[in-house]
Design goal:
By secondary structure, the chain is an alpha+beta fold. It contains four helices and five strands. Bound molecules: coenzyme A.
């Protein structure tokens, strides 16, 4: 089984939020924070990470507020390809594989997540 989640955000919204003290620390996990810090927190990428977290939640049927966003870290491979590092998400079926894709313009960031569920019930 496959489920998907997507999210689109106005970068302006994140620009406003980022001015609030502690916002970045509230939404970014440690590795994710450091990775973006090393890139001087590009606003498009911060917005894209936020989008990817929301898209992840949609793909697993959860809402904002139900899960600590810091536990859904969005990191980048050497090639730039994004991936999730999930920590302390005990309620999640370990057999689910997630793929995430990100895009952004000056004004918007978008993320798309595909969740591939394990084949435990293949006979059904
Ligand atoms: C992927 C790519 C086509 C996107 O370019 P673009 O259309 O200008 O940019 P978009 O706004 O649509 O997408 C940007 C996002 O693509 C994602 N991305 C970057 N490289 C990627 C890759 N190799 N695979 C998948 N996604 C990638 C990133 O999440 C990036 O967002 P970020 O800047 O917040 O990290 C371009 O970055 C590319 O050609 N990368 C190839 C790099 C590569 O393979 N290098 C190998 C060297 S190890």
């Amino acid at each position: 089984m496959i489920s998907v989640g997507t999210d689109l955000i106005e970068i302006k919204r994140i620009e406003k939020s980022i001015k609030r003290a502690g916002f970045l620390k509230r939404i970014l996990g440690n590795a994710e924070y450091l990775e973006l810090k090393n890139r001087n927190f590009p606003i498009q990428s911060v917005a894209a990470n936020f989008c990817a977290k929301e898209a992840f939640l949609k793909s697993v049927g959860k809402g904002l507020g139900e899960v600590d966003l810091r536990s859904i870290e969005v990191l980048r491979e050497k090639s730039g390809k994004p991936y999730f590092k999930l920590t302390n998400i005990n309620w999640l079926d370990k057999s689910i594989n997630f793929s995430v894709s990100i895009t952004h313009t000056k004004e918007y960031a978008l993320a798309f997540v595909v969740a591939e569920h394990g084949n435990k019930n293949e006979e059904d």
